[in-house]
Amino acid sequence: MKELSPGDRALLAGAQECLKAGNPDGARGSLDQMSVEGQGQFAALEIRWELEAQAGRWEQGLQIATAMSELAPQNAQPWLCQACCLSELKRHEQALEMLAGVVDQFPKVPMIAYNLACCACKLERLEDAKKWLDRAVVEGHRLEIKLMALDDPDMLPLLDEVCAL
């Protein structure tokens, strides 16, 4: 993909700053001023996805995350964004299938296995959920995964296992 023009780089930086400052309208306005080519860049799509997620517009977020995964299939973030959208849309089976299809591509990304555990819990597949949680612990930092899981309502069915980590 082509490099951003100086003008688009400045607008992207402005959108990032607005997003950090809690100004979604300003971020959206900066992105809207970018060239069509600039708006299609991965970094611009990331911001656009975050704006949609913050607003709870999960269908739009899913479209953006899908475009991100097409631009950068080797990047785990778009797959996690898609899973988030699918989960929020109550399409847990689809989220689980999609993540299961890419989990081996990202052996050093514990959040994929962790999200698989969450999806499995929502689908009441607790044996699968335990397996994915164990993999997340192996791939990541045990304490971080444990603290995240203790604070995650999706993981409530695995509370005993989480406490034992």
Number of strands: 0
Radius of gyration: 17 Å
Q: Detail the poorly predicted runs.
A: none
* SS strand fraction: under 5%
Distance between the termini: 43 Å
Largest pleated sheet: none
- What is the molecular shape? elongated
Structural class, by secondary structure, is: mainly alpha
**Counting H and I runs of at least 4 residues, what is the number of helices?**
11
Q: How confident overall, as mean pLDDT?
A: 95
* H/E element sequence: HHHHHHHHHHH
Helix content: over 70%
Description:
There is one protein chain. The chain is mainly alpha-helical and 165 residues long. It has a domain at 91-165. Helices cover 74% and strands 0% of the residues. The chain contains 11 helices and no strands. The protein starts with 5 loop residues before the first helix and ends with a helix.
Keywords:
165 residues; mainly alpha; 11 helices; elongated
List the helices and strands and how they pair.
Blueprint: H1 6-20, H2 24-33, H3 36-39, H4 42-55, H5 58-71, H6 76-88, H7 92-102, H8 110-122, H9 126-139, H10 142-150, H11 159-163
Briefly say what this structure is:
This protein has 165 residues and is an all-alpha fold.
